Amino acid sequence: MRIATWNVNSVRTRLEQVTAWLSQEQPEVLCLQETKVSDDLFPRAAFEALGYSCAISGQKAYNGVAILSRLPIEEVRIGFDALLSADPEVAGLSEQKRVISARIDGLRILDLYVPNGSSLKSDKYDYKLAWLACLQRYLAVQERQGEPLVMVGDFNIALEDRDIHDPKRLSGGIMASDAERTALRQALGERLADGFRMFEADSGHWSWWDYRSGAWETGRGWRIDHIYLDEVLQELATGCVIDKQPRGNIQPSDHAPVVISIAWPPADDEDDGETGLG
Predict the structure, then answer these.
(1) 193 located within any domain
(2) Helix count (H) and strand count (E) of the chain?
(3) Is 274 within the bounds of a domain?
(4) Phi/psi at 229 (5° precision)
(5) Fewer beta carbons below 10 Å: N end or C end of the chain?
(6) Burial 214-231 (b: 16+ CB within 10 A, else e)
(7) Which domain holds residue 222?
(8) What is the CATH number of the domain that holds 81?
(9) Nearest residue to 150 via CA among 29, 71, 74, 233
(10) How do residues 19-34 score in pLDDT, each as one tens digit?
């Protein structure tokens, strides 16, 4: 199974680029962030024509997440409140459409658009840290349910200095502060591992290039789009790549797709048609 994540920075603006990429790459699942469209205007028909069903959670002009799948989509959950309805902070943290998950072929696929935070002195930074703390609580509940987990999305965090083109200048600032990195690591715990880093240890691999200051042309990027796997799926991952090609399009998203390949269902389960893990 191939699972991809891509912040498309407006699914309607980038629709031709997304459908062209899907037609060429044909992953089983594509998770989108920053769709920037209300649910009633989401371009379902264009994806359904390619054989993809859609699970969506959007809002006009901002945020928005979606899961596209060539396999049946089951038990869609939207927002933190799907698992944390009694949590007193959830209502305020669920107003922005940033969280969606679904069960696909026995896997729980969780698609996130983590807040940017704006600057270290902004109220949005405090919101980001509260959001990440809520994510930690959400993941604790999900783990108790026993479904194998793939967590993907635009995390707006470079977890290590090797994930930034100029760590000497940028480390410690927004998207690379100690507090953000610590909050994400706490959410991941011992359970979730970075799928890309399972196959590539070196720096120089970016998934986002700021539109400003010629970042794409000069190779000054960040790796902030991640795919995390639980212990079960870490043993089954066979590769993970950042597809830079779409970033070179005319009027592209500022992010590139990230794609992971997983040997799912496990070979010994294919004989009896059961995963044994759900």
Answers:
(1) yes
(2) 9, 12
(3) no
(4) -120, 145
(5) C
(6) ebbeeebbbbbbbbbbbe
(7) 2-267
(8) 3.60.10.10
(9) 233
(10) 999 999 999 999 999 9
